[in-house]
């Protein structure tokens, strides 16, 4: 009987890896689209969890900092196959785009990014994609005047005070404002969700998350290791992202471009390329790591930026049922989400707009790409391919 159970468990783990890899190869369109793919595969086709459980899991991952779609995938893997199932679900969904972006970075190293036409085209793709993300997030996360005011506050402060601490302060202050404004809202959700993780293990994961957040900057100062410095920068960026993958852009830009680790052109070219591959946008870190330190740097960057997501989802799963019913917590989250929109608008202006729209023809091309994405609803890989070809043609005009 034990041998049969072992075989069943092994077969179940292989199934998790196979299904998540297939999703990692085919899930284009960003985190919202990923959640749709997950729902179709895990809820409707496989019936690994029911509608309410999936909705609860999505709510938790929207609450936490980090890549929401990746965390949902990890959570489904945990439900199906325990912690090992969560790890396999993550590997399958993430590895295809990691490999693609590392290869792109290694190819790009032999070129001068500032002098290649298709690189400029990818930078303009980034303009269209982030503009689309801003519009969608603003409609959903800032529908009333109070949250629009929080958006404006976050935009102005992060644009005028461009430091790593500014964004953290804005997020914390916006959470406090959201708590004060929305703390009395009612929540009628009575559904239940349970996971095969103990509260002790969850507390250990949360302790490790905060411990690394404090310890890594100290180690960075005490040593001169570039690898520790890279791990610290990627880990901190992955720890402070609220609102989805696009928000990691300003955090990573301010960690690596001003320090001279890579140029604005190389940064935005990689961001444009990240739109062409399936899977989570956080794998953009693999590209940056590979530009700095080859394929080893790409793998280190991937591990560092996703580690906070792992620790947070595993740490909070045992406590989520009671936490999500607290209207004060939800009120704070509403303020944080509005601040995310302002931070993204700030990043849209600098570095994306200032480094990409250099002439009227660039703006015209960005408008075409935006229309293809938003109104004609063409898939992202078509937008990226059009951007690369169009950027090459612009060099002859």
From TrEMBL:
Keywords: Cell membrane, Membrane, Transmembrane, Transmembrane helix. The chain crosses the membrane at residues 86-111, 117-138, 150-181, 201-222, 272-292, 299-320, 332-350, 357-375. PANTHER family: CHROMATE ION TRANSPORTER (EUROFUNG) (PTHR33567). It is found in: Cell membrane. This is Chromate transporter. Pfam families: Chromate_transp. It is a multi-pass membrane protein. Its main location: membrane. Belongs to the chromate ion transporter (CHR) (TC 2.A.51) family. The lineage of its organism: Bacteria, Bacillati, Bacillota, Bacilli, Bacillales. It comes from Priestia iocasae. Coiled coil: none annotated.
């Amino acid at each position: 009987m034990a041998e049969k159970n072992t075989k069943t468990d092994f077969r179940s783990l292989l199934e998790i890896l196979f299904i998540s890899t297939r999703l990692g190869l085919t899930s284009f369109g960003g985190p919202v689209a990923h959640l749709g793919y997950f729902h179709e595969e895990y809820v409707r086709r496989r019936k690994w969890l029911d509608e309410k459980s999936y909705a609860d899991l999505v709510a938790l991952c929207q609450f936490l900092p980090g890549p929401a779609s990746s965390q949902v995938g990890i959570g489904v893997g945990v439900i199906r196959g325990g912690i090992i199932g969560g790890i396999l679900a993550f590997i399958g969904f993430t590895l295809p785009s990691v490999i693609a972006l590392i290869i792109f970075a290694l190819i790009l190293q032999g070129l001068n990014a500032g002098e290649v036409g298709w690189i400029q085209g990818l930078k303009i793709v980034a303009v269209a994609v982030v503009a689309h993300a801003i519009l969608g997030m603003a409609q959903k996360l800032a529908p009333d005047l109070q949250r629009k005011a929080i958006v404006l506050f976050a935009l102005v402060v992060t644009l005028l005070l461009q430091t790593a601490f500014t964004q953290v302060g804005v997020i914390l202050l916006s959470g406090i404002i959201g708590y004060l404004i929305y703390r009395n809202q009612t929540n009628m959700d009575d559904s239940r969700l349970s996971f095969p993780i103990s509260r002790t293990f969850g507390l250990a994961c949360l302790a490790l998350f905060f411990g690394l957040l404090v310890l890594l900057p100290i180690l960075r100062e005490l040593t001169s290791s570039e690898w520790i410095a890279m791990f610290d920068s990627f880990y901190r960026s992955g720890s402070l992202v609220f609102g989805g993958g696009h928000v990691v852009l300003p955090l990573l830009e301010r960690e690596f471009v001003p320090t001279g680790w890579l140029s604005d052109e190389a940064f935005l070219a990689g961001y444009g390329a990240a739109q062409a591959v399936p899977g989570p946008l956080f794998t953009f870190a693999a590209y940056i790591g590979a530009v700095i330190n080859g394929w080893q740097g790409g793998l280190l960057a991937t591990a560092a930026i996703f580690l906070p997501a792992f620790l947070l989802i595993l740490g909070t799963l045992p406590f989520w049922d009671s936490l999500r019913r607290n209207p004060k917590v939800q009120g704070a989250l509403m303020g944080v989400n509005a601040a995310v929109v302002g931070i993204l608008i700030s990043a849209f202006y600098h570095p994306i707009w200032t480094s990409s729209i250099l002439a009227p023809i660039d703006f015209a091309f960005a408008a075409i790409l935006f229309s293809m994405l938003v109104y004609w609803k063409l898939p992202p890989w078509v937008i990226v391919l059009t951007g690369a070809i169009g950027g090459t043609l612009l060099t002859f005009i």
